Amino acid sequence: MESLTDAELTVLGLLVEAPRHGYALERVIEERGVRDWTALGFSSIYYVIDRLAKRGLIEPAGPPGTGRSRVAYRATAAGLAQCAAATRDALAEPAPVRARVLVGMANSPVLPGAEVAAGLAERAAALRDRLAGVRAARAAQEPLPPAARAVFDYSETVLAAEIDWAERTSTAYDEERTMEKYDVKKARKDLYAPSAKDFALVEVPELRYLAVDGRGDPNTAPAYTGAVEALYATAYALKFASKAEGRDFTVGPLEGLWRADDPAAFLTRAKAEWDWTMLISLPEWITDAQVAAAVAKTAAKQDNPALAELRVLALTEGPSVQILHLGSYDDEGPVLARLHTEYMPANGLAFNGDHHEVYLSDPRRTAPAKLKTVLRQPVKPA
């Protein structure tokens, strides 16, 4: 037995209810708001009638009128049986959700958040108009039989739920868009986007960091790996906690302060002789108490000794010389040699703090030749 489409089952059900011609079907469909839940245009009513008649599910109920549109049809015994069977299936089967809006949401990343929010707000307004129409149609036909009342109840419930979803989702997009999202790389381009062409002198104000100290070759020292993991885990715990309170931020890049008894160790890349302090910058609104809470939350999830060493560092570097280095970390030696032996002496400058590096690239995903690193050296008059 060939299954019935939603449109066919709807028309067949109306003809089981009472014999009707095309115009009468259109009037009932319009009055009951059937098109809110079934795609059944006026022109398609006669197409559906012809299909049902060819399958022997309906038949003319009397002599024809003055035209095709005035032929009344009624359900046959076979039509009544198939209508009953299809109705049982329709009542029991949870139909899959295939709303077009879900396709739109899946593709929404191609649009700015403001457009997504506006589109959903427009959808909510249209749904409110539709809900008002359904309620008006219901009021005009009261009192309703139980079946019709259930149909209207369902339509109103679905529309109300859709309105609630569209409004909440639109609001969420607006809140996400308007929430302050601090990004230190954008806020301080003077410090995080220097030129790669030549050294430049900048003034570095007091900035606060998450910090972990250590010593040894970063490529082989287990303490270095633990320090970096502790910094990132805590930084993201802070980000999520802060976002929940209404202020979001982008976790800053990994940074490092490097020191050695002999600065020449940086030129020769004698990494085993290096002491370091690894850093991640903090937005100014993050408090020490928030950091302590984030460390405690992180420590409850992972066993990392470096978490016990993590601290907040307020660092004022003042006048500093910096440049953007493009390439492998091990290729920094010649650049630092020019800084130490040429640029600083030529400009009457001396060392005034630890060598500072900002790692703008992720070495796990970036070829060594394309790594971007800010090289910074605090200085003072010689």
UniProtKB/TrEMBL annotation:
Alphabetical list of InterPro entries matching this protein: GyrI-like, Reg_factor_effector_dom_sf, Tscrpt_reg_PadR_N, WH-like_DNA-bd_sf, WH_DNA-bd_sf
Transcription regulator PadR N-terminal domain location: 11-83
PANTHER family in the cross-refs: TRANSCRIPTIONAL REGULATOR YQJI
Residue ranges constituting the GyrI-like small molecule binding domain according to the UniProt record: 200-379
Lineage top rank: taxon: Bacteria
Pfam families in the record: GyrI-like, PadR
Gene3D superfamilies: Regulatory factor, effector binding domain, Winged helix-like DNA-binding domain superfamily/Winged helix DNA-binding domain
Protein name: PadR family transcriptional regulator
